[in-house]
Amino acid sequence: MAPRHAYLVLHKESLPYGREILESKNLLTQFLEACTKKPGVFASLCNRWEKEKVVERSIRGSIRGNFISKEHTAETVMAMDNAFSDGLTPFARNEMTPELG
Q1: What is the pTM of this model?
Q2: DSSP letter string, the chain
Q3: What is the signed CA dihedral for 78, 81, 82, 84, rounded to 10 degrees?
Q4: Mind listing the pLDDT tens digit for each residue in 28-82?
Q5: Cα 80 vs. chain centroid, distance in angstroms?
Q6: At a CB cut-off of 8 Å and minimum separation 6, what does 74 contact?
């Protein structure tokens, strides 16, 4: 679960994370269910959440400038899983792999 939440935090400008997920029973349930599935399922959830968040922000008028939507894939989710299995040292050194960006 930790690598999947870290993935959300890495993309926090377009995905819910932390308290936002904990305070929403619906988001929390979706997150926990997706964490038990394959990376592609989690990536699909991220893509859906991102679209919902962009629509919500555009309705509120809180999107500034040109927001570039990122396609979340099983490969980017697996890259975060692998980075976690390698330990957090690369993140501490700001040596994030390009696949995560």
Answers
A1: 0.76
A2: -HHHHHHHHHTTTTS--THHHHT-HHHHHHHHHHHTS-HHHHHHHHHHHHHHHHHHHHHHT---S-PPP----HHHHHHHHHHHHH-SHHHHTT---GGG-
A3: 160
A4: 999 999 999 999 999 999 999 998 876 676 566 655 555 556 789 999 999 998 8
A5: 10
A6: 38, 39, 40, 43
